[in-house]
Amino acid sequence: MTPQDLQTDVLVVGAGLGGIAAALAAADRGASVVLTEEHPWIGGQLTSQGVPPDEHPWVERFGVTARYRALRDGIRDVYRRRYPLTGGARDWAELNPGAGWVSKLCHEPRVAVGVLEEMLAPYRSAGRIRLLERVRPVSATADGDRVTSVTLRSVVGGADVTVAAAYTVDATETGELLPLTGTEYVTGFESRHETGEPSAPDAAQPDNVQALSVCFVVEHTDGDHTIDKPERYDFWRAYAPAAWGGEQLLSWTAPNPRTLALEKRSFTPNPGDDPLAVDADQSKNAGDGNLWLFRRIAARDLHEPGFYESDLCLVNWPSIDYFLGHVLDVSREEEEARIADARQLSLSMLYWMQTEAPRPDGGTGFPGLRLRPDVMGNADGLAQAAYHRESRRIRAVTTITENDVSYAVRGDQGATRYADSVGVGMYRIDLHPSTGGDTYIDVPSTPFEIPLGALLPRRTTNLLAGNKNIGTTHITNGCYRLHPVEWNVGEAAGHLAAHCLATGRTPHSVQSRPDQLADYQAELVAAGVELRWPDEAHPY
To answer: What is its EC number (predicted)?
Structure first.
């Protein structure tokens, strides 16, 4: 090997939530791990993409892994130890620092970065986890059905690094290792003929992929903080897609995801609400009536007077959904161009809000809106990375379809039960508008399980899916793509790699042989992974 080459038991490419969970699980079981990340922050959709955790209503009691719960507890602990909370906030057992309506734990992304770094720290100190920062995969080698190495290239300059590993976990946001390793995969919308899904089209649409978004944070203070007019503002100001019923995208009006009726949202910065009264439960209230409150990540009234000049509002709204083109299986140049265009859309939304948006008092424009690049850890004020809702997906041993989780299909019998369950999850089937021109699909699901077979490619023997690249369809990706599910998927993959290293078994034999499966599942349960839902969980 050259000085830049590395050898490890487990290579985890992508340090989002799934990747970190995989690395922790494998290292805790004694495996050596190389973990890689492209962006300045680890944590993926929770941090560099800036998205507060989308979770189910029972998250405070059950339905997540013990390690995921430790992450949530750690975030709250930082606020209690380091932030000047009011007495009421400090005593709030289920503290929601942003008092946002989208999640029971809306918070600033940097806090999660610190907690995740803390979770990794002992393993890094012991040499069990080595983190390669600011690199992305560019090539891979295989020997038959086995991946033998992955080569990573610095995005800030430097020599390539090739990592050879017994097991590789693809925890990237878009399934980047699948084409590089020759692992069979699918993109976009499968056909009804292939999946049997009632909501699928007659013919496959591989280029029909959910919108991506580039999030940002604003506050509202005295003064005029209007940004320069974005280069693409005139285009985005006039854009009125069919999926919006002909309404302009830059608007307070958008389709209700569940009914598709056009609805006008309100926007009132720093409304003086009671943050302690927020009950973030989307099964009761979608929470997007006042967009300022929907994804608020810092509520100033939970803190001592004067600490925050303004609430902090995370903008991840329908108006910044980018669906002019996807970034799967396009050239690097095209990928960068489309993400740059998505960044222009986000800046255009901000400029529209600052200059033209209708105000409750009858005026127009909120020039007091100010970007907070320090909160996002990025000079331009936007998130470091695009929020990818949909990835390449492996051709898996088990493919989860609409018929397995949709309440309209399953009814009160509940989701499909899997003998090889490695975890649980729950979210509505929530698909945003897509590059094929489709509008929302947002329908009830039932509490579901994660089958081990969905993490295993049909052919490749030592590559495990550890993110949104598991064996879902375009439709079921809509409920398996959220934070706690991604973490659970990654954690199961890391445990599996370590289990196979320790026993000499293969992932496919563990999945297919009941005796081996029972051993592996017992290890998951001992580590705090829940394999089944309690009876009180229900559809919403």
So the answer is: 1.-.-.-
pLDDT (mean) for 392-418: 97
DSSP letters for 226-282: PPPPPTTHHHHHH---GGGTT--SSSSEEE-TTT--EEEPB--SS----GGG----T
Neighbours of 358 (CB within 10 A): 15
pLDDT number for residue 243: 86
Sign of the Cα torsion 492, 416, 212, 320 reads negative
Q: State the Cα–Cα distance between residues 273 and 99, nearest whole angstrom.
A: 10
As to burial, measured by CB atoms within 10 angstroms (0-12 exposed, 13-18 middle, 19+ buried), residue 30 is exposed
Handedness of CA 176, 177, 178, 182 (dihedral sign): positive
Q: Which residue has the tokens 């507060």?
A: 52
Length of the chain: 540
Pick from 32, 268, 20: nearest CA to 165? 32
CB of 19 within 8 A of CB of 170? no
Dist CA 213 CA 346 (whole Å): 8
pTM: 0.97
Range list of H helices, 368-447? 373-376, 402-405, 407-410
Q: Helix count (H) and strand count (E) of the chain? A: 16, 21
Average pLDDT over every residue of 198-204 = 97
pLDDT, tens only, 334-379: 999 999 999 999 999 999 999 999 999 999 999 999 999 999 999 9
Q: Is 428 helix (H, G, I), strand (E, B) or coil?
A: coil
Q: Which two tokens stand for residue 270?
A: 């720093």
Q: What gap in Å lies between CA 142 and CA 491, rounded to an integer?
A: 25
Residue whose C-alpha is closest to residue 452's, from 517, 391, 388: 517
Rounded-to-integer distance, Cα 204 and Cα 75, Å? 42
Q: What percent of the chain has pLDDT over 70?
A: 99
Tokens at 388, concatenated: 């990818």
The pLDDT confidence band at residue 4, using thresholds 50, 70 and 90, is low
Cβ(452)–Cβ(492) below 8 Å: yes
Q: Residue 165 is encoded by which pair of tokens?
A: 């590993």
Tokens 């506050």 — which residue?
219
418 φ, ψ (degrees, to nearest 5):
-115, 130
More confident residue, 243 or 392: 392
Going 370 to 371 to 373 to 376, the CA torsion angle's sign is positive
Span 454-507, pLDDT tens digits: 999 999 999 999 999 999 999 999 999 999 999 999 999 999 999 999 999 999
Does residue 185 come out as left (phi exceeding 0), alpha (psi in the -120 to 50 range) or beta? beta
Segment 19-42 shows an average pLDDT of: 98
Q: C-alpha distances in angstroms, 97 versus 48, 111, 119, 311? A: 19, 11, 21, 11
